[in-house]
Each structure stands twice: as C-alpha cells, then as structure tokens.
C-alpha cells in the first residue's frame, strides 16, 4: 500500500476545496475516515486501476484522515488492526501558508557571509574598529583558522564576494542560497541585530544585496535570508530605549523582571528576547509595511526563522504557533511565492502540524541521527550506539509524521553554522562523508550543502574539544590546490541526480529489504524507482539488472558496496 503527496489532487489545496485522495492497494473496497468538528466521519471509496479513490472537501487544517480496509486501518505509520491515535493519521494542510512549488526538493547552499568570499577588501572592518562585550574586534587573515573568540573575529567576506562566486555555485548546481544574517550588527555572526532595515555596510550594504538578488534572478536561482525575530541585539536602539527609559513604549517589547533583569536568548544578555504580546512588537515585526519580514521580500525569495521554536510571549514560547503562522503569512503577503522555514532544533512535528511554516531545518529527523550513526557520537559529542535498523526507525518515524505537503520542503542537512562539520565528526574519513552526502541527496526533502563541505573543509579544533561554533565557521579556501576535487565532482553528481530524477525530487519513501546492517529504502514516483543502500562497513547486495546512478555502470547479481544509488531496469 502507498499514499503520499503524488496521490492528492490538488496536492496543495485551499481551505474548503475538494480533493481527490488516492490509495495504491490491492483492496477493491474501503472507507475514507476523516476528522471533522471532533467527530470521525466515513465515506466509501471507489476502485480504480491500481487502488481506491474518493473526493472529500477539506474543511479544516490540519485535515486528519486514514483508510479503513478489510485488513485494518492504514495511516501514516502503516497498517494497524485497531483505530490508531490521531497522531498516526495522515495530516494534510490546506490554505496558506503552504510551500511554493519551487522549494520542493530544491538544492540549498548555506553561506556564512563573513567567511565565504571577499569581493571588496575595503569593506572589511579594521582591527580594533569597535568593541564588543568590552573587547576590541579582531581582523583576521583569510588563511588563519577561526579561534575561540568567534563573534569578535572578522575575515571580511561580503555580498559582492558571493556575487563573484555565483559561476562556481551555478556549476555545482545550487538552486537556492541561504545566508546567515546580513543586517547591521556589531558581531561577525550578526545574530545580535541593531538595525533590521540596513544591510551591514561591511557586507556591502543594500547595493550589494540588490546586486546579488538581481544576479540570482538572472541565473534562475533564489535567495533565502536569516530572520532573527526572536531577539534583537542589546545595541539595538529599541532595546537601549527600553532599558534606559522605563516609561518608553519600547519597554513593553521586552520582558523585564522585578529585579531589573530581562529575558534573553538562552540567557545571553547581548540578545534580549522580544515579547510578541506587545502590540508594538507585533506592529514592528509582523504587521507594518516596514516590518523586516515584509520589507526585504523585494530583494529575497524567503526566510529562515532563527530559533523559531522559541518565538513567543512573555519571555517564553507561549503562543508560538500563532506568531510563526503570522510571520509566514506576512512574508507571503509581500511575496506570494515566498518560502518560510524555521530553525526547529528538536521535534518539528507539533509545530508543523499546527499549520505554521513551510518546513524546518531537519535536525531531529535527519542530521542528528544520521551523523550519530556514522560517527558514534551525537552532535554534542556523547557516545551513541545506533544501528541501521534503529536509524531507519527514526528517519521513517519523522517522515511519516510530517504533513504530506511538507515532506519534500524540509531543509535537510548534515552540517551547519551551529553544529560540528560532518567531515570533522567523521575524523576526516572522506569515504564516510561521501556516504553521508549520498544519503542526504537520496532522502526526501531539500538537501543543503554547508559552504566548503563539498571541497573537504573541516575545522581546526582537536576531536577531544567537541565544538561546532565557532570552529565550524572557517573561511572558504578559494585556493583550488586545497580542494578535494574528487569530492567536489561527487557532490556535483549528486546534485544533478536530485534535480534530474523525479523519484529523488518528489518521490515517496518506502522500505527496502536488505542484509542486516544495511540502511536501505526506495524512492518512488509513479512507476519510477530509485533504490538506496548504505553500509559504512560494506555489504554484499543481490540486485536485479539496473544502473548504478553514481557511475553509470550496469549492475546485475551480487555486488559489494558501502553505498549505492540504483535504478532497476523496467520489468518487461
């Protein structure tokens, strides 16, 4: 049995629209069960070649449903003998916000602007130009490794440099750039914003952003910006006024406690947390034409919302779904095809099922379990004992629980600016890195390359000092003699496969029988399939006739591989 996004017509319905639901099954009769107004309703399904179908009006979102067949109840987690919990129904979202079609399976490339490429050296801040936290900033040479001072260290990358790098990114096959924050800030990471309406002059200002946007548009690529709307920087004029003038309107934009302290991001006082219970916060960040989430949609195609899981009221995440939904709708009112996904570092399912965002960074449902399986340690360095069977359970559990329309728009990753680089976690083992990236591109979702991973960029700290930030933010090595060009060509091939094969781009995720210790699954769209096998220690596989998609080699019978993307030949 099979039911996924391709079995819905239309796949992204408006609220109140009638949808045809199809189920691939050998059964010739069945009921469509769906929740409405607190009740579970039933409607008979009609047979068609290959399965059953029914048309139902989608009257609420999320719309929960499953199929009752002679052998049991078929929901998101498979066949069950009794009516399952609602969280094991299929979930469909209807009406805005919904992901734009361009984002489904799109290939992303994440850039940390200060560390990617320098286009105009004169824009770089000078050594000691200002202080941050009472210490002078430091200008570093491009070849120097990042040190523990992190936010104080500036390398001088800018947006003109990103424009210069577009031919390289286009050749790699990238479709969407995601930039970490670009707005005026005293730190090199720029998550402590002091002016949301000004592109940092050290990055080239609005002139450079416009040049980048126009170059991307001309090349058929897109741009996603980092929206830091959970907190501001302590140097922001609104917070300075709130701190210094207790009677000011801005005071209510933040949460102050009786002892004079205030809510901040993870207790970091340089990042005071916004209070969305404040009408002034709502106006300035959601509803006003100059709200940054609206204002910058003229020069970008979407947003990644920083610490989206924390945005809320009263110094907490209270009313979090309401404000995530409001932010996403604001962006889409300014740009109809905008993409808005969130940094949901933990369980994404409750937030995404609440019809809030177009997707999320796939940490819990992909990056963390995959890298724990391959490295034997979690993202914080603790030992983990996870086998292939256990990994499949985690991956499929998260996939199945996602609303159908978001399964292909999840920002799916291995490395980022917040966690250790994949190559470093694998102790420099590039064979395992290739396996990890093959798995990333074989899995459903929008695969994201963290800048430099594709040429073998790692980080300088010893393995015993388990840190991502700031060591995972090294400058991109533009000296090609430092590149692993074989790795680059390999990832380029993966990108081409993702873009060229519908099963990899938008296909269903299905289990695949394989020897013990092998992670295996099928991606299927219509009658096309791609089989994926992953075994870090190597495995003997028995295959029908077909093609090794990475090499073009025809295979049949027994082969030994540590990983394989395989297209079986059509059965005549």
TrEMBL record:
A biological process term (GO) from this entry: carbohydrate metabolic process
Q: Which Pfam families match?
A: Alpha-amylase
Q: Does the keyword Hydrolase apply?
A: yes
Keyword Transcription listed: no
**CDD domains, A to Z:** AmyAc_CMD
Where's the Glycosyl hydrolase family 13 catalytic domain? 110-498
Keywords on record: Glycosidase, Hydrolase
Single annotated GO MF: hydrolase activity, acting on glycosyl bonds
Give the highest taxon in the source lineage: Bacteria
> Which residues are in coiled coils?
none
**SUPFAM superfamilies with a match to the protein in the record:** (Trans)glycosidases (SSF51445)
PANTHER family for the chain: ALPHA-AMYLASE FAMILY MEMBER, MALTODEXTRIN GLUCOSIDASE
* Protein name in the entry: Glycosidase
- Source species of the chain: Thermus oshimai JL-2
């Amino acid at each position: 049995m099979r039911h996924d996004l391709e079995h819905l017509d239309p796949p992204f319905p408006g609220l109140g629209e009638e949808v045809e639901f199809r189920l691939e099954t050998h059964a010739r009769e069945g009921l469509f069960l769906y929740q409405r107004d607190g009740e579970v309703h039933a409607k008979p399904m009609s047979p068609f070649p290959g399965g059953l179908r029914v048309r139902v009006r989608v009257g609420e979102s999320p719309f929960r449903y499953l199929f009752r067949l002679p052998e049991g109840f078929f929901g998101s987690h498979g066949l069950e003998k009794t009516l399952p919990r609602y969280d094991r129904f299929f979930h469909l979202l209807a009406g805005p916000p919904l992901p734009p079609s361009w984002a489904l399976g799109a290939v992303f490339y994440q850039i940390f602007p200060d560390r990617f490429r320098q286009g105009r050296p004169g824009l770089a801040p000078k050594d000691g130009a200002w202080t941050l936290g009472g210490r002078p900033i430091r200008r570093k040479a491009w070849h120097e490794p990042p040190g523990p001072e992190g936010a104080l260290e500036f390398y001088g990358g800018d947006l003109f440099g990103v424009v210069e790098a577009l031919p390289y990114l286009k050749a790699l096959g990238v479709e969407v750039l995601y930039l970490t924050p670009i707005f005026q800030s005293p730190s090199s990471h720029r998550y402590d914003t002091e002016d949301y309406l000004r592109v940092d002059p050290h990055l080239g200002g609005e002139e450079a952003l416009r040049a980048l946007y126009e170059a991307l548009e001309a090349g058929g690529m897109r741009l996603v910006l980092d929206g830091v709307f959970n907190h501001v920087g302590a140097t922001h004029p609104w917070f300075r006024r709130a701190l210094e003038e207790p009677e000011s309107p801005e005071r209510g934009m933040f949460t102050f406690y009786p002892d004079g302290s205030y809510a901040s991001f993870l207790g970091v006082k340089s990042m005071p947390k916004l209070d969305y219970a404040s009408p002034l916060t709502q106006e300035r960040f959601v509803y006003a034409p100059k709200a940054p989430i609206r204002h910058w949609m003229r020069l970008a195609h979407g947003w990644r919302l920083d610490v989206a899981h924390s945005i809320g009221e009263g110094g907490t995440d209270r009313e979090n779904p309401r404000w995530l939904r409001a932010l996403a709708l604001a962006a889409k009112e300014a740009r109809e095809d905008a993409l808005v996904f969130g940094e949901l570092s933990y369980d994404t399912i409750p937030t995404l099922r609440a019809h809030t965002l177009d997707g999320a960074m796939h940490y819990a449902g992909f990056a963390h379990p995959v890298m724990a399986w391959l490295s034997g340690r979690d993202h914080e360095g603790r030992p983990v004992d996870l086998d292939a069977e256990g990994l499949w359970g985690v991956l499929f559990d998260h996939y199945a629980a996602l609303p159908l329309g978001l399964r292909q728009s999840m920002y799916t990753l291995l490395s980022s600016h917040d966690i250790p680089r994949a190559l470093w976690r694998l102790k420099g083992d590039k064979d395992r890195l290739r396996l990890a990236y093959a798995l990333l591109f074989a899995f459903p979702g929008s695969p994201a390359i963290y800048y430099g991973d594709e040429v073998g960029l790692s980080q300088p700290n010893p393995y015993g000092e388990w840190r991502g930030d700031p060591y995972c933010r090294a400058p991109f090595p533009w000296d090609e003699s430092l590149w692993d060009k074989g790795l680059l060509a390999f990832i380029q091939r993966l990108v081409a496969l993702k873009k060229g094969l519908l099963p990899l781009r938008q296909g269903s995720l299905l289990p695949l029988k394989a020897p013990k210790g092998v992670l295996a699954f099928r991606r299927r769209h219509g009658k096309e399939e791609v089989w994926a096998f992953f075994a870090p220690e190597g495995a003997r596989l028995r295959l029908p006739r077909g093609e090794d998609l990475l090499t073009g080699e025809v295979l049949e019978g027994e082969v030994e591989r540590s990983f394989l993307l395989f297209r079986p030949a059509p059965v005549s």
